[in-house]
Fold this protein.
Amino acid sequence: MSQSIRATHESKLGTGADSREVYIPPVGLAGTLRLCHDAAIVVFAHGSGSSRFSPRNMAVAEGLNAEGIGTLLFDLLTSEEESDRANVFNIALLAERLVDAVRWLEHDMLPVSRRHLGLFGASTGAAAALVAAAKLGDRVGAIVSRGGRPDLAGEVLDQIRTPTLLIVGGSDYGVIELNEEALTHLKGPRALEIVPGASHLFPEPGALEAVIGHAARWFARYLAASSPEAGPRG
């Protein structure tokens, strides 16, 4: 077992996922890794002011686990870095932390095929996921954004050929338009799902469940290991 895993907590979830607390090098960022047998894994990037304990991302992760997809939720910043508010909007830094996490998974943890690893980003974390995907290329099989700010990824959008799903609340005015514009720049398979009546954080009844459903179907389609029904990319 890698030195970056500590036996602070390990259990079998009812979903069949093995949960363990991990520390991701080189900074030692704390995270929760849930592995499902022979399954794809999705790495989460939370939005500004949040952490691996984001109740919304935790709910999405549990929904993916229930579908047999592994997940990694981790803190993108150290406690010292979080004290500088500018860091939560430092997309380049957040993207580099995602790249570090993917490299750690590939090197120390999992025999994960490049097509079997996905990224899920919320708010500013969506921009970080897109920038990271541009750096990682075909090592990332799919991306899902929840209430994201893909515009913050800038010119990188034109470089992304990874299958990307943008999910936005129907009442999240302004953000809808930003996602519609971003969609025109993406080069690979892409889609925009608008959840009727949902606001930015999807607190409305049934809204987050809709996000989970859209995300699970997208990952099952493009991360071949996550489902026997997964089809070819592109």
